[in-house]
Amino acid sequence: GKRAFIAGVADDNGYGWAIAKALAAAGAEILVGTWVPALNIFETSLRRGKFDESRKLPDGSLMEITKVYPLDAVFDSPEDVPDDVKANKRYAGSSNWTVKEVAETVKNDFGTIDILVHSLANGPEVKNSLLETSRKGYLAAVSASSYSFISLLQHFLPIMNPGGATISLTYIASERTIPGYGGGMSSAKAALESDTRVLAYEAGRKGKIRVNTISAGPLGSRAAKAIGF
Ligand code: ZID
């Protein structure tokens, strides 16, 4: 069977959860990466059976998540983590959540994976038009929503089996003007799409790994509700 790592699952409402279910239904083993600040509530809800109804697969069985990894995809390695984040209670309560450490932990736990899913984005100023977006907000959007994929691929590629596949989720606001998708999120998706082409070339040659992105339709996820879509 195939093993999948899905980054960006923190509840049962988003694309990451739905993709995890589709992969589980197809027989894959499921590992997820959950944003550190959301980890506690996600694990508690899982344990208490809050997601049992939405864990149901077409054959009637429940999706099993083999392991939940805390992850913050804006940090590549421990050296990158600023003191205020290190001291933050929610972060201090978990460990090994930078991208490099998560890939190492997955390697130690399972050796290899076959499928890498990037289902995460964050734009702190998404409600601001691009014209009103600060440099800090713009760079944060690109860091969390675009570079996070490069970083994940960089660190997971060495443990991906040849013939494996990676996928991310994008939005058509990268190509067309869609008011409301601000804060540099339109720019971040444009970067993600361009990177998909370049990384498909590079990862295809380096590790026989496919790189694709899907331009998603509207889904009432936590992230989408935050924007008001
Ligand atoms: P989600 O909230 O389920 O997933 C986002 C996840 O990212 C959450 O679990 C966060 O905790 C996590 N996260 C945030 N920052 C970090 C971080 N630094 N490290 C690790 N994890 C982090 O929302 P979702 O399912 O909407 O988002 C998944 C992907 O789908 C994202 O790339 C979205 O940009 C993309 N997407 C979603 C939609 C949508 O409608 N939900 C659309 C297009 C793309 C879209 O916005 N019409 C209007 C809007 C849209 C489509 C059509």
Task: Describe the overall structure.
- With 229 residues, the protein is an alpha/beta fold.
- It contains 8 helices and 6 strands.
- It has helices spanning 15-25, 36-47, 83-87, 89-92, 99-110, 135-156, 185-207, 222-227, and strands at 3-7, 29-35, 65-71, 113-118, 160-170, 210-215.
- The protein has a 6-stranded parallel beta sheet with strand order 3-2-1-4-5-6, with helices on both faces.
- The chain is globular, with a radius of gyration of 17 Å.
- The termini are far apart.
- The model has no long low-confidence stretch (mean pLDDT 97).
- Bound molecules: isonicotinic-acetyl-nicotinamide-adenine dinucleotide.
Give the overall shape: globular
Helix content: 40-55%
Number of helices: 8
The ligands found in this model are: isonicotinic-acetyl-nicotinamide-adenine dinucleotide
What proportion of the residues form beta strands (DSSP E)? 15-25%
The Rg value, from CA coordinates, equals: 17 Å
Count the beta strands. Answer: 6
Largest sheet: 6 strands, parallel
Side-by-side strand order of the widest sheet: 3-2-1-4-5-6
Low-pLDDT parts are none
Average pLDDT for all residues: 97
* Gap from first CA to last CA: 37 Å
Could you state the order of secondary-structure elements as H and E?
A: EHEHEHHHEHEHEH
Given helix and strand content, the structural type is alpha/beta
Task: Give a quick rundown of the structure.
With 229 residues, the chain is of the alpha/beta class.
